[in-house]
Write a structure and sequence with these properties.
With 364 residues, this protein is α/β, with parallel strands linked by helices. The protein starts with a strand and ends with a strand.
Length: 364
């Protein structure tokens, strides 16, 4: 599961990627400096993991991770192949969610491809290119589905109905995610279509240092624009975040953050939001050898969670011993949790909750 960073050229995408991943993707004041998509495996900041480390004192600690992809800047006409459009759109299609970066700061020294700063126009430029590409995909599929529907295929008839609704939305400059599936069959079909504008999106407003703690008028405009999209809007000063990552010690970074009026780097909050956007959650294993955060999908069962550790755990699953995170912290040790009767034994139907501390019994 990976989230792709998209936006117009020179909005701060590669600089943000560097902050998130500590990789050194090329960032420069001209379009298309990122040609191949850079992929970073990013640790997910989680205070619960730090607390478990404090309680267990293990030999090592392994955080959850999420993949972030830095995709080169899209330009007007990308859906028709302008710039490096086809390649970029293909890279977005391979991602599971979109982090849409919008320039929300004024700086005459940094070129804007359209001449002036206007995040509303910039968002619409990207949206239109993605919608046009999806419209092309939908019309091709619709042509095939109509032929199959004519010979009596009920599945094709359902597909035609759904594709026509999506096509109508796209023609009205609405993203495909605004079309609500009406049953399980349509949910499966939409997933199979792999449309770009069905992917969940997080809007990131790149502000200047003075707006790092409070945002600015540009951010307010973006919030108003997307209020009906069921999408999160966050803001951070990407250039300032880059400065923070260059500082050597934790103490220096904290002093810098305090001066800005921030409790933590914006990048940390963004990583957690991206993790949530991908509908991922975390469970923990805790022992003297290792305290580890494991990534699973929201809604996964205990055997599916066990399978993340090793496929044999899922195949031979017998039961899961589960401690709620808050109970682990309250009682301090696994032994005390057991004494208090707070350790639960769960079977194959158990839906794992975010933060569960788990131990699996299996037999292969």
């Amino acid at each position: 599961m990976k989230a792709g960073i998209v936006g117009l050229p020179n909005v701060g995408k590669s600089t943000l990627f560097n902050c998130l991943s500590n990789a050194k993707a090329q960032s420069a004041n001209f379009p298309f400096c990122t040609i191949e998509p850079n992929i970073g495996v990013v640790n997910v900041p989680d205070q619960r993991l730090e607390k478990l480390e404090e309680l267990v004192n293990p030999e090592r600690v392994i955080p959850a991770t999420v993949e972030i992809v830095d995709i080169a800047g899209l330009v007007k006409g990308a859906s028709k192949g302008e710039g490096l459009g086809n390649q970029f759109l293909g890279n977005i299609r391979e991602c599971n969610a979109i982090i849409h970066v919008l320039r929300c700061f004024d700086n005459d020294n940094i070129i804007h491809v359209d001449g002036n700063v206007n995040p509303i126009r910039d968002k619409e430029t990207i949206d239109i290119e993605l919608q046009l590409k999806d419209l092309e995909t939908v019309e091709k599929r619709l042509e095939k589905a109509k032929k199959a529907a004519k010979v009596g295929s009920k599945e094709a008839q359902t597909e035609v109905s759904l594709l026509e609704r999506i096509r109508e939305a796209l023609l009205q400059a609405k993203s495909a995610r605004t079309v609500q599936p009406q049953n399980e069959e349509e949910i499966a079909l939409i997933e199979n279509f792999q449309l770009i504008t069905t992917k969940p999106v997080l809007y990131v407003c790149n502000v200047d240092e003075g707006a790092a703690a409070t945002g600015n008028a540009y951010v307010d405009q973006v919030r108003e624009l997307v209020k009906d999209e069921n999408a999160e809007v966050m803001f951070l000063a990407v250039g300032t975040e880059a400065d923070i990552t260059e500082l050597e010690t934790y103490e220096e970074r904290q002093m810098f953050l305090e001066d800005l009026g921030l409790k933590e780097p914006g990048a940390s909050s963004l990583i957690r939001s991206a993790y949530k956007l991908l509908t991922l959650q975390t469970y923990f294993t805790a022992g003297v050898k290792e305290v580890r955060a494991w990534t699973i999908n929201i809604g996964d069962t205990a055997p599916q969670a066990a399978g993340v550790i090793h496929s044999d755990f899922e195949k031979g699953f017998i039961r899961a011993e589960v401690i709620a995170y808050n109970d682990y912290v309250t009682y301090g040790t696994e032994a005390k949790v057991k004494e208090a009767g707070k350790l639960k034994v769960e079977g194959k139907e158990y839906i794992v909750k975010d933060g569960d501390v788990m131990h699996f019994r299996f037999n292969v």
